[in-house]
Target: Nuclear transport factor 2 family protein
Amino acid sequence: MSDLNELVQDYIAIWNETDPAARRARIDALWTEDCAYIDPMAEARGRDQLDATIGAVQAQFPGFVFKLGGDVDAHHEQARFTWELGPEGGEALVVGFDVAIFDGGRIRTVYGFLDKVPAA
Model:
């Protein structure tokens, strides 16, 4: 469990990494080559699309940060966790939860769900 908890912490850190080269290096280290990220707003397959998706989210919410919204629940190479996105020290504007599937200590797939989104 503690290893998966650390991997989830690393996953959140990638979403907060604003340096493109550093972010890509972290993606390459943490995600499998054939990875997938799927939520109601985006579907990214492979590291290139994942990197572009994270960059687009950062552009949409400049200066915002992701943080865990509670404990990580993990077993058998999978984890679920709540996350929040908002200004540092402020109220979260977006809240969701993800289910991450791991393969040999790397993330293979993340399924994201959105619980709270800003009004259009």
